[in-house]
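Today's session is about reading a structure prediction critically. Students often jump straight to the picture, but the first step is always the sequence itself: look for stretches that repeat, for charged clusters, for runs of hydrophobic residues. Only then move on to the predicted structure, which in these notes is written as discrete structure tokens rather than atom positions. Here is the chain we will use throughout the hour.
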Amino acid sequence: MVVQGADGGGANDGSPIVIVSNRGPVTFSRTESGTRTHSRGAGGLVTALNAVSRRQKEAVWIASATSDEDASVAEESRDEPYEVEDLRVSLVEHDEDAYDLMYNNLANPLLWFVQHGLYGLPYAPALGDDTRRAWEKGYLPVNENFAAAVERVLEGSPRGRGEAEPIILVHDYQLYMIPHFLRERLGEEPFISLFVHIPWPDPEGWRVLPRYIREGILRSLLQADVVAFHTQRYARNFVRTANEVLGAEADEERGVVRYDGREVWARAYPISIDPGEFEGLAASDAVREQESSVRNLPGKLLLRIDRTDLSKNVLRGFQAYGRMLERHPAMKGEVTFFAGLQPSRGDIPEYAAYAEAIQKAVDEVNEVHCTPSWQPIVLSMEDNFPRSVAAYKAYDVLLVNAVRDGMNLVAKEAAVVNEENGVLVLSENAGAHEELGEFAITINPFDLDEGADAIYAALTMPEEEKKRRAEALNRQVRENTIEEWVEAQLRDIDAYRERRG
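Below is the predicted structure for this chain, in token form.
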């Protein structure tokens, strides 16, 4: 069993902290009058890393420049971090073609698909010269560009290099090669953690990648001190992969990998949310204005809130619901399935085709089962966060049936604001299942019959049982907040450095 991260305490000793992620905490732009303005980044990772940056006022967050004004800030922040609100940021401008190769040709179409198990292997992927070019001309240069930015930031640190061991926290699958480039530039002095926010496959799944990528990434990750995941399953898969692919010495019970004279810890830190933030959102005027749009739908409310990502398994969710209506025709008019889906990666052909398949599945269920006064599925294909939170408050059943997920924060966000003792139907392959599975109805995300039965069971569950599950779910989320997530990592950093001496 891979060791779980400690769940409390811990603080660094004043060491410079550098956070590195592809997506930054803010995006800059210009108003019509020419004034620079900015907007806060969205998403669970940005929220989580904000919690990290708040732990030290001089922490610096390095991220990609993604707008024209970001590029201007990148130039201004080369020597000194740019201060905005309570953050110090240093943006990195990449060669446009290199970034496109990294992001749109390797990280998302290949690494994301491999790590979520999305390929139909008899047909895809077909790897070749284009893959090698995306690796050598895109992924590697972008990662090296980030490493150079980290070195510049540390050289400009008020403490200066060498006075305190820097802590470098790298995040996610776009940046796997940064530990390698950092060790080349900075040696063994800095503490390096790389947090993988998506699933890590078993060794056979990892071997889908060409040898130079699968081995290159593993060797780089094993130059970090801690490689972190959201679940013990993914951490365990990583330990096994390092052992079977590279021949590294692996202690699965302790979550330790030894390779090339280094000891690397594989740890699980299940990411969470700030319950107070969502309670505040739930009470906001913007959310209250949206409540009637979901509470006035006929019957009980079956809900899903997701991106139109292949990993979310949206299509089978609708198909399972249609099967439930076939098996239980008395449920017609007694439940409405509201799906708030945010468009995702429409420039990738597989995603564009999936969005079309989703619409077709909705149309088919509605055509077969609708009545003059009732539409079985109400589909919204737009990003409307206030309406999502309003739906969180109102659902009777929440469906999270992901093929695979690193975590899935929707299950946690919804649990803390729901007012109806809503029931969670949860995929056994969602990262959240390790924490929340005992309070949910667990499903195999590929089994339509099981999904249909689970939806029906959730909709017809006795009130007393619903209340028991909902209260336990809420309590579990509140016992592991985003602050505990941060503290667990800081405590393990202290423990690792103390062990290393």
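Discussion point for the tutorial: The first strand starts at residue 17 and ends at 21.
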